[in-house]
Design a protein that fits this description.
With 223 residues, this protein is an alpha/beta fold. Helix content is 34%, strand content 19%. The protein is globular, with a radius of gyration of 16 Å.
């Protein structure tokens, strides 16, 4: 049986001094590559921008899933598209969602919308018929290695119920403390895309770690 879980290793936890090698290592078990972009304003950390995304895109054929933890992502959407991003995800908390969704569509990007742990489900439900991916954060964004917050599981379940009831082609992605122990809980709630950073890149055998997460999620879905 084909896997229903899609694995998105987060390069935030990779060795940036050997990023190409890290990507090559996980590629056999990666469906997407999750790229965390932080502006030091929306979240208290700085990471990478379009030039690094361009280098990653030139190195791999993996789908580049760019999570823009930024106060003003609209200013940079075209730059990320030109750098090779396949999809961009912006946060519902920053507002201006309608314009951002329209801009991403116009640029030919897959449209993602992220929601922080403390933000209620009701903030994203009105947008589910306009997006391709809902990213439910299961930690506070900004830093890797945080512990999974189980209180967000009902948010995933409510999104899954709405998506299924309206036959919407929306993937539910989860990010934060995802490993082979927490992935099944999220899979049972309805998640299909699993972002994992530390659980993959800090493991002695990253592709084996990614496979364990995939298998754990699949088992939770009866796979």
């Amino acid at each position: 049986m084909a896997s229903t879980a899609r694995i998105a290793p987060s390069i935030l936890s990779a060795d940036f001094a050997a990023l190409a090698e890290a990507i090559d290592c996980v590629a056999p078990q990666a469906d997407l590559l999750h790229v965390d972009v932080m502006d030091g304003h929306f979240v208290p950390n700085l990471t990478i921008g379009p030039p690094v995304v361009k280098d990653i895109d030139s190195h791999t054929d993996l789908y580049l899933d760019c999570h823009l933890m930024m106060t003003n992502p609209g200013k940079y959407l075209e730059a990320f598209r030109n750098a090779g991003a396949d999809g961009c995800t912006v946060h519902v908390e920053i507002g201006g969602t309608a314009e951002l969704v329209e801009d991403m569509r116009r640029l030919g990007l897959d449209v993602g919308l992220a929601v922080n742990p403390e933000t209620p489900y009701e903030a994203v439900e009105p947008w589910l018929d306009r997006i391709d991916l809902l990213l439910v954060m299961s930690v506070h964004p900004g830093f890797g290695g945080q512990s999974f917050m189980p209180e967000v599981v009902p948010k995933v379940r409510r999104a899954r119920d709405h998506i299924d009831a309206h036959s919407l082609p929306v993937a539910i992605e989860v990010d934060g403390g995802i490993d082979e122990k927490t992935a099944p809980e999220m899979a049972e709630a309805g998640a299909t895309v699993f972002v994992a950073g530390s659980a993959i890149f800090k493991d002695p055998d990253p592709p084996a770690a990614a496979l364990r997460i995939r298998q754990a999620a699949d088992r939770a879905n009866g796979g």
